[in-house]
Amino acid sequence: MYLTPQHILLAGASGMTGEHLLDRLLNEPTVERVLAPSRKPLAEHPNLVNPVGEMLDLLPQLDGPIHTAFCCLGSTMKQAGSQDAFRAVDHDLVLAFAKRALELGARHLLVVSAIGANPDSSVFYNRVKGETEEALKAQGWPQLTLARPSLLLGPRNEYRLGESLAAPFMRWLPGKHRAIDVTALARALWRLALEEDEGLRVVESDELHRLGR
Predict the structure, then answer these.
(1) Is 8 helix (H, G, I), strand (E, B) or coil?
(2) What does the pLDDT look like over 146-187, one tens digit per residue?
(3) Residue 54: exposure state from Cβ atoms within 10 A (0-12, 13-18, ≥19)
(4) How close are the terminal C-alpha atoms of the chain, in Å?
(5) What is the pTM of this model?
(6) Which CDD domains does the record match to this protein (predicted)?
(7) Is the backbone of residue 89 left (phi > 0), alpha (psi -120 to 50) or beta?
(8) Are 19 and 35 a contacting pair, CB within 8 Å?
(9) Across the chain, how many H-helices and E-strands are there?
């Protein structure tokens, strides 16, 4: 566990997972500074630095040092509107953020990926997530944590019919397929951030459940 105040870089702080994670980070006594670039202003906090604009424009302006970076960026095919637009966020932007975090001195990157991530998948969404994971591994991180949650439960800014229909059933599925509450995911991510093991760790949704209790 880190014994000194932490400087954190967080991408996706305005999304469902990022919002809950940001709240946890800002209430941790060991966190001294959270740098959270976003497209829209976030609620003010004395430990929060919140550059506002397009992520690709903001990345060169970010300053360190950074100890740990969290990436909660992610879209859906419906939100993106096309496969190219989806890849631009869930692959290209994630990799650009990770590269900048590494340049700023971060030694541990934690990324919210997805259950079923596989670069060889016939499902486009899972294939892009898997390709992103492989590209992150190639960046040479001292410590890389890939979290693969199942369906996330929690309030969203937009209504998703498919997820609303699936949620009651996925709450009771066994193992890694069981839906996970976003607050539990945020707790799990913070606990994973405190681990100092070098190298790669892939954390499936059932383990995220356990860590997020």
Answers:
(1) strand
(2) 999 998 886 645 544 444 445 454 454 555 667 899 999 999
(3) exposed
(4) 19
(5) 0.90
(6) CC3_like_SDR_a
(7) alpha
(8) no
(9) 9, 9
CA distance 187 to 25: 10
Q: Which of 63, 34, 27 is nearest to 49 (CA)?
A: 34
- Where does the chain have alpha helices with state H? 16-26, 55-58, 77-80, 83-87, 94-103, 124-137, 161-170, 182-193, 205-211
Q: Which amino acid is at 211?
A: L
CA distance 42 to 208: 26
Strands of 48-49's sheet in order across: 48-49, 31-35, 6-11, 68-71, 108-112, 143-148, 199-204
CA distance 20 to 83: 28
pLDDT digits (tens, 9 = 90+) for 103-153: 999 999 999 999 999 999 999 999 999 999 999 999 999 999 999 999 888
Residue 38, both tokens: 């976003």
Residue 72 in tokens: 């909660």
